[in-house]
């Protein structure tokens, strides 16, 4: 065999193999590489988007936490104010109730003092009549001298 003929045949076979590879093997291989590159790019984009979403979520969570803290503080302050108002109201109600009880007690005491004075006047009038009876050694008629006894009661 001739070396030149072998080279030409090998060149022809190489050329046919190159054409076959370019026509049938290379396009699916390039498509597979392009799809792989696209998947990698999509994955990186999704990872960046997820990282950004995570950061945004963390910021929103922190903002919500801060808002909840502030709201909690406001509610605590409002509860303390309300408790103070309730305590003040209870104090005022207790003071009013105490004043009412004291006034009722004073009125009751006045009534008892007045009643005791009336009873004392009656007793003094009875004693005066008995004393007059003893002095006069005769019975004094209480109904006949009622005006006199009433006048004596008012003087006492």
TrEMBL record:
HAMAP family noted in UniProt: ATP_synth_b_bprime (MF_01398)
TM segment ranges: 6-26
A Pfam family the protein falls into: ATP-synt_B
Keywords annotated in UniProt: ATP synthesis, Cell membrane, CF(0), Coiled coil, Hydrogen ion transport, Ion transport, Membrane, Transmembrane, Transmembrane helix, Transport
Family: Belongs to the ATPase B chain family.
Domain of life, per lineage: Bacteria
Major location (coarse): membrane
Lineage: Bacteria, Pseudomonadati, Pseudomonadota, Betaproteobacteria, Burkholderiales
Complexes and interactors: F-type ATPases have 2 components, F(1) - the catalytic core - and F(0) - the membrane proton channel. F(1) has five subunits: alpha(3), beta(3), gamma(1), delta(1), epsilon(1). F(0) has four main subunits: a(1), b(2) and c(10-14). The alpha and beta chains form an alternating ring which encloses part of the gamma chain. F(1) is attached to F(0) by a central stalk formed by the gamma and epsilon chains, while a peripheral stalk is formed by the delta and b chains.
Protein's membrane topology: Single-pass membrane protein
Keyword Coiled coil: yes
Coiled coil: 99-126
Localization annotation: Cell membrane; Endomembrane system
Protein name (record): ATP synthase subunit b
């Amino acid at each position: 065999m001739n070396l030149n003929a072998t080279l030409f045949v090998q060149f022809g076979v190489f050329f046919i193999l190159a054409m076959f590879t370019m026509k049938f093997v290379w396009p699916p291989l390039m498509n597979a590489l392009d799809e792989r590159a696209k998947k990698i790019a999509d994955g990186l984009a999704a990872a960046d988007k997820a990282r950004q979403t995570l950061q945004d979520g963390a910021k929103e969570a922190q903002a919500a936490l801060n808002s909840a803290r502030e709201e909690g503080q406001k509610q605590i302050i409002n509860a303390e104010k309300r408790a103070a108002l309730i305590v003040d109201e209870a104090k005022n109600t207790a003071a009013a109730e105490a004043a009412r009880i004291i006034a009722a007690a004073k009125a009751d005491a006045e009534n008892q003092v007045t009643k005791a004075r009336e009873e004392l006047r009656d007793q003094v009038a009875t004693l005066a009549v008995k004393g007059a009876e003893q002095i006069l050694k005769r019975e004094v008629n209480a109904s006949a001298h009622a005006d006199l006894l009433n006048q004596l009661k008012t003087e006492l």
